[in-house]
Amino acid sequence: MRKTLISLFLLIPSLAVVAGDPDYNVAAIPAPLQIGADAVKRMERYSVRMEGLKDVTVVHTFAITVMNESGVDYADVQEDYGPLRDVKSIKGILFDASGKQIRKLKSSEIKDVSGVDNAALMEDTRYKLHSFYHRSYPYTVEYEIVTNNRQSFALPLWIPQEGPSFAVQQSLFEVTVPESYPLRWRTFGYHGEPKTQVVKGQKTFTWEATMLPAIKSEPFSRDWHNRATSVFLGPAEFEMGAYKGQMNSWQDWALLYLRSIKAAMYCPTP
Which residues pair with 94 in a beta bridge? Predict the structure, then answer.
C-alpha cells in the first residue's frame, strides 16, 4: 500500500507538467499554417467579463510564433490606459524554436510612454509597451495581459488574425455578462452562432476559430475586418464617465448625442 501511495505522489507532478506545459515547438505547427506566414498565433484565450456597467475586466492570454523578421511586430505588446482603462498586469515568456523557455518578462522592461503626438497637444492616454527584442528566428512569445475598463460603451472586439501573413492555430473569444443583459454582436467571416452557457446568473458567449491560414496583403482591398474572421460587440445599456444610456435603437443614440451637446453648451470655459 505504501509503495502504491508513493507511486501516486510521484505521478501527480508529472501529470501536471504534461497538462500544463504547452508545446510551442515550431515543428508542431501544421504545415498549411506555415505557408505565407510571417507569424502564427499558436493559441489565444480572450476573456471579457462584465461585472457592472463601469466594471469590465479583460484577461487576454496568447502565444505567437515569429517565423521571420517580417513578423516581429506581431509579437510586440502595446496597451493603452487612461481615465477609463487600467492595465492591471502584463506577464510574458520567451521560448526558442524547440519550445524551450528562454526567459520571463521583467517588470522593469515594460515601458510607460505618453500618448501625445502631433495630432493632439493634450492627451490623457498613455501606453505600456514591451518587446523581447529577440532576433533568432523562429521563436515564440506568450503573454497574459489583464485590463479593466471603467466604461461599457466601447466593448472589446475579436479579430484573431491581426493582419496579413498571419495564421491562427487556435483562438477563443468568450464574453460573460449578467444573464439579463442583452449583449449585441455582429460577425464577419464567422459561420454559425456562439456557444452559450448560463451559470449562477452569468451568461457566457463563446466564439472559436481554428486553422486559419495566412491572408495575403493586397492593395486597394477591403477593410481588414471584412477579410478576416471578426466579432464586434455592441452594448445595450452602458455607462461612460458621467453619461449613461442605451443603444437599442437609433433613437436611443440620438437622445444620448443631444444630452452630450447640451452638457457641452453649459460647460464653463476656462
Answer: 103, 141
9 in any annotated domain:
no
Residue 97, domain extent: 23-235
All 3 cell numbers of residue 142?
506568450
Distances (CA, A) of 159 to 41, 171, 231, 233, 250: 12, 9, 7, 12, 26
Is residue 29 situated within a structural domain? yes
How many domains, the chain?
1
Could you report the per-residue pLDDT of 138-154, keeping only the tens digit for each?
999 999 999 999 999 99
Q: 127 by DSSP, 3-state: which?
A: strand
pTM for the whole structure: 0.86
**Residue 104, domain member (yes or no):** yes
Residue 132: which of 192, 89, 179, 91 has the closest Cα? 91
Beta strands in the chain (DSSP E): 39-52, 55-66, 77-81, 85-95, 101-104, 111-114, 126-130, 139-149, 166-178, 184-188, 195-199, 202-212, 230-234, 237-240, 243-246
Q: Indicate whether 84 belongs to any domain.
A: yes
Residue 148 belongs to domain with CATH number:
2.60.40.3140
pLDDT at 243: 83
Nearest to 183 by CA among 174, 172, 170, 191: 174
Sheet holding 77-81, edge to edge: 77-81, 126-130, 111-114
DSSP state of 27: G
Of 51-60, 119-128, 130-139, 161-170, the least confident: 119-128
